[in-house]
């Protein structure tokens, strides 16, 4: 079977045959040397985006302004970026100037860490001008070039170093670490969206206890929104469990433990989407419910199918209790209904049945009571049975 690497090599061959240099670069070279699965391959070339576009049938112009196009081949996407150098990062968000170069080493020298600054040619030879391979073997994260300058150029690299430490269980080389410490205050100038991406990866990683510990020891949380205003929250970070399914879930965890923090504080400060907001609030409600009643039919009904795994991780880290996502899913699927839409009656039916009652909040409340009784199994999900029960309910209420 053809692998993603084979397809990448075919693209390289096409570029080489047209007289251009082309290499696999960045994370894919690193992960291959670490024997980790590679799902995503980036290529670098001295061909300009226009030249790349002319050579391939399916090209998507995703980031022409910084020299990147996506080449589609065999249903896979490859980012192909023209060799470039970057000058000045006065806003800490975008380089002021990007210029194309024809030399691979110059392109590799703008990359963040030695392990990310290697290239692989069509024959599989590794080009490694900054000794990235040796650092990989020594399990060290080391800045390319002068660390103080590199973190000044783009302080996001500080967060990237910490998240790679978390993902790979590597140490940070001493000069690199010291420069991270010196440049740490620049973190506050970064766009929060970029910060979020790196923190998200850090918190999901296998070695995140170590990553989190290193981040905390460096003092990172003194410069991050929400955390910087609360020493008690930073104490919680120090003792925090992980990994979680993502940053969102870690925030739910922290807000659960540190009740004075409303989830919405995190949601606003980290500009989380409405979808994340909804899922986080639901997880939070369900945790509260779990704390008072444990696993029940109502609890699994309330749990969204897609969130069951996340919920189990949270329960494990908060209460130390091991729930099986499969068991919860089975219990959920065995319920008489999966959602309110499946109830055998709706609002119209109930209004028709109780014509003497004026519209009002009673209708919503009634549907909720019916729903709970159907979920718990005390009322069958049959229209006639529910209507009989409703009549009885109102008679007994008015008696
Ligand atoms: P991942 O496996 O998480 O995608 P990656 O190393 O591929 O890790 P990307 O963010 O996809 O990380 O970036 C691809 C490559 O681009 C990196 O390996 C590195 O060479 C370079 N790079 C990315 N971000 C920066 C940065 N802020 N400064 C310098 N080089 C960077
Ligand atoms: Mg990548």
Automatic annotation (TrEMBL):
Its EC number is 2.7.7.72. Mg(2+) binds at residues 40, 42. Its cofactor is Mg(2+). Residues 169-227 form the tRNA nucleotidyltransferase/poly(A) polymerase RNA and SrmB- binding domain. Residues 22-142 form the Poly A polymerase head domain. It is an enzyme of class 2 (transferase). Keywords: ATP-binding, Magnesium, Metal-binding, Nucleotide-binding, Nucleotidyltransferase, RNA repair, RNA-binding, Transferase, tRNA processing. CTP binds at residues 27, 30, 111, 154, 157, 160, 163. Residues 250-390 form the CCA-adding enzyme C-terminal domain. Pfam families: PolyA_pol (PF01743), PolyA_pol_RNAbd (PF12627), tRNA_NucTran2_2 (PF13735). It catalyses: a tRNA with a 3' CCA end + 2 CTP + ATP = a tRNA with a 3' CCACCA end + 3 diphosphate; a tRNA precursor + 2 CTP + ATP = a tRNA with a 3' CCA end + 3 diphosphate. A single active site specifically recognizes both ATP and CTP and is responsible for their addition. Catalyzes the addition and repair of the essential 3'-terminal CCA sequence in tRNAs without using a nucleic acid template. Adds these three nucleotides in the order of C, C, and A to the tRNA nucleotide-73, using CTP and ATP as substrates and producing inorganic pyrophosphate. tRNA 3'-terminal CCA addition is required both for tRNA processing and repair. Also involved in tRNA surveillance by mediating tandem CCA addition to generate a CCACCA at the 3' terminus of unstable tRNAs. While stable tRNAs receive only 3'-terminal CCA, unstable tRNAs are marked with CCACCA and rapidly degraded. Belongs to the tRNA nucleotidyltransferase/poly(A) polymerase family. Bacterial CCA-adding enzyme type 3 subfamily. This is CCA-adding enzyme. It comes from Streptohalobacillus salinus.
């Amino acid at each position: 079977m053809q692998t993603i690497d084979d397809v990448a090599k075919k693209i390289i061959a096409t570029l080489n045959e047209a007289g251009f240099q082309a290499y696999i670069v960045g994370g894919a070279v690193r992960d291959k040397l670490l024997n980790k699965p590679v799902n995503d391959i980036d290529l670098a070339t001295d061909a300009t985006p226009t030249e790349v576009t002319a050579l391939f049938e399916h090209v998507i112009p995703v980031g022409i302004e910084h020299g990147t196009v996506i080449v589609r081949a065999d249903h896979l996407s490859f980012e192909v970026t023209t060799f470039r150098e970057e000058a000045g990062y006065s806003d800490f968000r975008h380089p002021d100037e990007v210029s194309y170069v024809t030399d691979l080493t110059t392109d590799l020298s703008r990359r963040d860490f030695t392990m990310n600054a290697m290239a692989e040619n069509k024959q599989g030879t590794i080009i490694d001008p900054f000794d990235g391979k040796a650092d990989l073997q020594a399990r060290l994260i080391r800045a390319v070039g002068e660390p103080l300058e590199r973190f000044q150029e783009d302080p996001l690299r500080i967060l990237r170093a910490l998240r790679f430490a978390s993902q790979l269980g590597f140490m940070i080389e001493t000069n690199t670490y010291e420069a991270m410490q010196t440049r740490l205050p620049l973190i506050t100038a970064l766009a929060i969206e970029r910060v979020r991406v790196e923190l998200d990866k850090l918190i999901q990683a296998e070695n995140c206890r170590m990553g989190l510990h290193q981040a905390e020891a460096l003092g990172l949380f003194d410069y991050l929104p929400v955390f910087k205003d609360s020493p008690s929250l930073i104490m919680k970070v120090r003792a925090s469990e992980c990994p979680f399914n993502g940053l969102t879930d870690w925030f739910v965890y922290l807000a659960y433990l540190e009740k004075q923090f409303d989830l919405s504080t995190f949601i606003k400060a980290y500009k989380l989407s409405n979808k994340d907001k909804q899922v986080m609030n639901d997880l939070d409600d369900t945790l509260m419910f779990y704390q008072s009643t444990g696993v029940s039919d109502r609890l699994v009904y309330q749990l969204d199918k897609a969130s069951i795994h996340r919920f189990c991780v949270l329960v494990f880290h908060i209460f130390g209790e091991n729930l099986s996502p499969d068991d919860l899913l089975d219990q959920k699927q065995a319920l008489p209904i999966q959602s309110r839409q499946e109830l055998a009656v709706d609002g119209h039916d109930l209004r028709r049945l109780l014509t003497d009652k004026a519209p009002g909040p009673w209708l919503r409340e009634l549907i909720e009571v019916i729903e709970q009784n159907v979920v718990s199994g005390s009322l069958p999900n049959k229209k006639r049975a529910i209507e009989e029960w409703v009549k009885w309910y109102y008679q007994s209420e008015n008696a």
